[in-house]
Amino acid sequence: MNHINCLNYLPIVETFHSVQGEGVWMGTNAFFIRLAGCDVGCPWCDTKISWNLKKHPEMAIADLVDEAVNAKPAIVVITGGEPLMHDLQELTQQLKLQNLQVHLETSGAYPFSGNFDWVTFSPKQFKHPHASIYEQVSELKVVVKDESDLIWAEQNATKVSTKVVKYLQAEWETASSKDLVLQYVLSHPDWRVSIQTHKLLGVR
Predict the structure, then answer these.
(1) What averages of pLDDT result for each successive group of 10 residues across the chain (204 residues)?
(2) Element holding 76 (H helix, E strand)
(3) I need a surface site. Which of 50, 81, 96, 201 has the fewest CB within 10 A?
(4) In terms of C-beta density within 10 A (0-12 exposed, 13-18 middle, 19 or more buried), how is residue 34 classed?
């Protein structure tokens, strides 16, 4: 089985109302739904609490939609964990019935599901993306620790539309990665530097 949720319920780490901290939609009023479960295993992950889905309660999709509506956000961001471990069709359908703009943040490691207005794709070498993700991508964001990640970034860039906005994000625990990203962007103008502004602002 590719999907692991029970119908009408999803395992939830947290929901919160903040601003989008990264990418094209940086600074936008956003309601976040963080789903539990991830087996990609990024060593630098700042949400490792989300990895074990059994440690998090299941929440009714109807209640998630009610929370999102009450927040009155510009966008609803479904993130994780790895959200595509779950079938996202019902959740996204119900959100869009409320005229909400729905975004996804994913490594693409599982088959694509759901109806999204924007898809931020952050492929990882630890668990390669499923082929179904590439035609859905709006924004490509690759975390860079060393030069092998730059090669990985370019490999994935060849598989998405030329209209996709492309970002490189330094792995902040590796000091050399910041200069690596900056110098690469300065010599490859089709890429942009991604900055996690929510961490600079001290918000979630």
Answers:
(1) 59 96 95 89 64 82 96 97 95 97 97 98 94 98 96 98 97 86 97 78 61
(2) strand 75-79
(3) 201
(4) buried
